[in-house]
Inverse folding.
């Protein structure tokens, strides 16, 4: 299938964006500069906010008339790494084949950004209400960047009336997602010769007992809820993703650490789950450790948090997205997005974007051309609405 002629510009723009290898650990400044250049000539107010060492930036642009209100189109510029993945195409070069566009970030989520940017020159001169573009860094490592952008808006007195986050939902509106908390747990033991193991404190074994308890909590949540059947995974999940410890078999390891996360339903309380782990450690693991070395024990540090998104179905932004997509979908998803941080800042948000989350983060990530086309229709209608007299 050849793309219809009006897809040429979004595809060209997507090619430009995919070619910036904006893996979260690396700088995104070249992409940000490119977008800034693109906005030149469109009379945009551009605000940048940076990370601590100024290697990465958020961009917030206001187009059309200034003042309160207007809509935010929001996306993250970073992508997940391709290390260790077996790609059939060059991940940072857009490749078209069989009605699909391949490349890292095509689904998650440079296509939404590309379509929005490609449409701006057509619509901006006719806007009657503000249109904002919000591009963030460090979304893929825990939605760390967008907070600074949102804080800056508040400081600048900007008050958009709604936000659409273009994460891949196959253009189906999503109004709720789970919250996420991630933690690092560090275990301090006491090293020793393994022949004298009972005189040492084995940090790996202590850590393993804590991980096993997390698994017990996860099973209980799976079997007994609470449940919300609107979510594809209907219960809160707990998962350990990384564990480190030990150096040699004949040494009792004095150190262990593991990273775990909770992805919780709006009605669940992550603090209560964490307390459950803490009291198990305090009552069942640490006493035995401290009987040998009183400085042994656990430390748990929160690494990141994505709040729950729970936008009410009767909100204006939901009505607008329903009208523009021609659906009444009120989807709920298990993954977190930046939408909840906009919502928490008083900007009601909906997630709706092209592509499928099932293609995200994988080798041979792609987006179907028909998704790019659906996104172009959606954003075209949206910009048309912003051109109507208020
Ligand atoms: Zn994403």
């Amino acid at each position: 299938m050849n793309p219809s002629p009006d897809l040429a510009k979004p595809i060209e723009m997507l090619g430009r964006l995919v070619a910036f290898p904006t893996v979260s650990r690396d700088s995104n400044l070249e992409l940000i500069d490119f977008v800034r250049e693109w906005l030149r000539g469109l009379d945009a107010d551009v605000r940048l906010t940076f990370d601590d060492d100024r290697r990465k930036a958020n961009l917030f642009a206001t187009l059309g008339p200034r003042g309160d209100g207007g809509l935010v189109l929001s996306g993250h510029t970073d992508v997940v790494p391709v290390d260790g993945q077996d790609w059939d195409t060059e991940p940072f070069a857009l490749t078209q084949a069989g009605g699909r566009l391949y490349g890292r970030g095509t689904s998650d989520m440079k296509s939404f950004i590309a379509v929005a940017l490609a449409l701006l020159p057509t619509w901006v001169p006719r806007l009657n209400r503000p249109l904002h573009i919000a591009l963030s860094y460090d979304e893929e490592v825990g939605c760390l960047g967008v907070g600074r952008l949102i804080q800056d808006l508040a400081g600048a007195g900007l008050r958009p009336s709604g936000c659409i986050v273009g994460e891949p939902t196959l253009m189906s509106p999503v109004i709720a997602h789970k919250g996420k908390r991630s933690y690092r747990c560090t275990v301090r033991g006491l090293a020793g010769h393994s022949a004298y193991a009972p005189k040492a404190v084995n940090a790996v074994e202590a850590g393993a007992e804590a991980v096993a308890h997390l698994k017990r909590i996860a099973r209980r949540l799976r079997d007994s809820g609470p449940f919300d059947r609107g979510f594809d995974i209907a219960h809160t999940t707990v998962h350990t993703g990384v564990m480190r410890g030990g150096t040699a078999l004949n040494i009792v390891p004095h150190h262990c650490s593991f990273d775990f996360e909770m992805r919780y339903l709006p009605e669940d309380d992550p603090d209560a789950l964490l307390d459950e782990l803490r009291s198990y450690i305090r009552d069942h693991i640490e006493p035995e450790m401290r009987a040998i070395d009183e400085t042994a024990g656990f430390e748990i540090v929160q690494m990141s948090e994505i709040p729950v998104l729970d936008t009410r179905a009767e909100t204006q932004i939901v009505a607008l997205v329903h009208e523009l997509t021609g659906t009444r979908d009120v989807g709920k998803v298990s993954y977190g997005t930046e939408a909840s941080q906009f919502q928490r800042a008083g900007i009601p948000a909906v997630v709706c974007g092209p592509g499928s989350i099932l293609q995200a983060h994988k080798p041979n990530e792609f987006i179907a051309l028909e998704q790019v086309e659906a996104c172009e229709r959606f954003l075209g209608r949206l910009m048309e609405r912003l051109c109507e007299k208020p």
Notes: The radius of gyration is 24 Å. The CA atoms of residues 279 and 285 lie 10 Å apart. The first helix runs from residue 8 to 18. The first strand starts at residue 45 and ends at 50.
